[in-house]
Structures are given as C-alpha cells and as structure tokens.
Request: fold
Amino acid sequence: MSVIYIARSSAIASRVLAGETMVMSVLDSTFFTLNEVASAIWQAADGVTPLEEIVTRNVCPKFDIPQQEAFIDAQGFVRELSAHGILHVSDRPIPEAVPAASEAR
Amino acid sequence: MSLLHEMNEKAQRHGIPLSVHIDVTYRCNERCEHCYLDHEDHGEMTTAEIKGILDQLAAAGTFLLTFSGGEVFLRRDFLEIVAYARKLLFNVKVKTNGVMIREFQAQELWRLGVEQIQISVYSHRPEVHDAITKLPGSLTKTIRAIRFLREQGLKVTIANVLMKNNFDDYKGTQALAHDLGVVYGLDPTITPKMDGDRSVLDLGVAGSMLPVVFHDETLVGDAAAYCAPPPAPGEDVMNGIPCSAGHTSCYITPYAEVFPCVQFPIVCGNLRQQTFEDIWRNAPQFREVRSIRARDLTTCSSCSHVGTCSRCPGQAYMEGDMRGPSTSDCEKSYYRTGIPSENMLRRGLAPPPSVGLVQIAPAPA
Reply:
C-alpha cells in the first residue's frame, strides 16, 4: 500500500460550526459540510502526515472505529474532496499546506 | 433546502454570527446621488484594529465576510486586510465601484482567493452612470475593472440600484452584464441617510413603475408565481424571525461600531471599548432585536403579506419603530401582488387599482 499525503487547497474557505466543518471552494462556490470524523481528517491534513497515520492517531481512538474500516472510509472521503479540488493528494509530502480552519465551536 | 441554508439555521440555533459585513472606510472617490453615507473620515480603524477584529470574528464562528465601503481600494492596506482575512479562511466577498482596479488588483484578488466581487453599475450609458456617480469617466473605468476581474476568472456581480434617473436603462445594463459574462442584480431600494435624512428617498422610482420590473421574467423568473397573492401565514411564519440581522449576521462600521445590519443603524457597541463576543452576546440592543417574532410586529402581524414581504426591520427602525412596518416594503408587496398591505390600508396609502395590477380579469360579457 502506497503512502498518501493530503493537504488542504488554498482556494477554500472553511470554518467549524458546532462540530461540523463548513468548506467552500472559492473557485466554483461548491459547498460541503464535514461530519466530526471527516472534520478530524480535514483538520489534520497538513501535507506531511500520512493519511494512515492521521486515521490511526486522530480518528480511531476518538471515534472507536476499527483501523482498516476507518482507512477505507478515509480514502473515499479523500477521493471525493480531491475531485472537487479542495484537497490535494500526493504520494510525497506536500509543502506549504494551508493552516486548519479556526476552531470556533 | 440548500446546505448553506441548513448551516444558517444551525448558526441561528447556536447564536453564531455566520455572516458579517465590514465597511473598512466611508471615504469614496464617487459621490453617488443616492448614497446614505457621510464620506468624511471621522477616525476609521487602523490595519491592526481590523486584523484584531477579524481574529475575534473567526473565533466567534463567522464564515461569510463582506468588505465594503465607501470605496475599499481607497485604503492602501486593503489587500493586506483581504490577505489576513483569507489566512483566517473566511469566505470573502468584496463590494467596490471598481474605478481603482487595474490588472494588479485583479490578479491579487484572484491570488488571495476572493470568492466574489460586487460592482455598482447604474447604466450602460456613461452620461447616465457618470451623472449618478458624479465622477466623469467612471463607467469606462468600472467596465475596464470588470474585464480585468473576468480575465482572472473571478466571479463578478453587477449591482444596479434602480432610480428614477436610470429606470429606462435597466435592460441596457442587464445586456451589458450579459456581454461581460457577469451576474446582474437589480434593487429598487433607496436607503435613508444614516443620520436619518430621508430626502434621498425622492430619487427612488415611483411605486407605480415597480410592476414593470416585478413582471420581468428575466429578473424574477416565473412572474406569475413571484407576483401571486401571498398564502395564509401559518404558525411557523408567525413564530419565525423577521430577518437574519442580529441573529446570524451583523455589520461593523469603519469606526468599530457594531450594528445588526448596514441598513439597521442602531449602535449595539464599539469594538474599541468591548470585545465582539461581549457585544454579540450581551448588548441589550441585540437582545431586543432577537426577541422579536413575526407575531410581535405591531401592524405586519395582521397583514396578509407577513410571510412573503421583504420587510426590513432597519427601515422600520428608521421610520421610528423596529416592530413596525417599513413602508417602502409595503409598497413593494402591493405593487408585486396588487394586494394592499395592512399598513397601507390603515394609513389610507393604497392607490386605486390600475389595469396593470389586475390579478384576475373577468371574461367580457
């Protein structure tokens, strides 16, 4: 299995609202809301931490999900957001990833 | 229901100011005849003050941020402010007249990730537009700016305030927007000056001219549905809030004052003396605005238009009672549907019906 690195696009607006993360592409105004599990992955998408490590460290213990199941779900989530250009995916670390949305609520 | 609408409802439940409008300056290079602002600088916020407020808004949960003025580009630090807002991941919209936008500014707005630019255009004809802005050559410069912005791929909306002096030009302005590949929006609302002076309202179109635009399907879509008589209001309408102002949105002046909305000039606090959180949570003015439900409105609660009217609580406040009607919206409801509002009936303001307002015409005998 190859290592996957993920980084948030700079062409997005984002904010956490009562546990959900709102993400809007400023390129095409596509609007997403991410649930708590997806938000945890999004917040950790710093371009240098492998997706598998994010899932192991930020998702499994917090949401009590088996590692393999969580990793498969995470890959699907990453594919969907990358298709809309709001998440960059690479098999190498991605420098200069944008900071995570401010934690509001 | 759209996702954004869902998030707005969630923000209301949690008391979060999802949308904030900041005027970074009241100074302007145009002198539009209908403008409600005093263009003198009475001590506008510094760059550091605005950045500090943006930090507070991000922490409060604000997502949608509109920068306006005055003319925003008269501030030399405007792009620095936008850059800071984008670093905080706000969705940023900019309102401008475009006169000072060249290729560089357009490139920077694109690079910084501004989601939308709204530009005021009053006519497709320079002699009409420039007479309203009182700045010779302004239409040419504004159109040039729109082209620069479009070349960058930015989303641009033309905002056309409709008045007596440009009423005959709105179709031409709409065609100009089409040619430029931008969205067109028309608004017949003229706002009293912030000091209460209502003389500018005389520039507005006569109510009897409004049916022309209300029945223009290029503007309103299905005109029959748009102009249909209002349905009887249910409990959900009567228990609903009249407007998002003060609930999920607010306005900040260049002098750090906080209002419920740009059109609702009741000072709820000043960010030079208090934190945003303190003003938003505790200002008695915000609490009063939030306490009002449609059933509490003094005249409108018994009006058939209560569920569909564009009633502006700020305009009502400017008329003397934030729970009362806003007469200009009563007129819009009347000229849209042909049915007088309760306020118009009580005040004897309903004009006799004209042919253009007949909803159901009996067959000739």
User: Anything to note?
Assistant: The longest strand of chain B covers residues 91-96. Residues 47-60 of chain B form the longest helix (14 residues). The CA atoms of residues 59 and 277 of chain B lie 9 Å apart. The two ends of chain B are 46 Å apart (CA to CA).
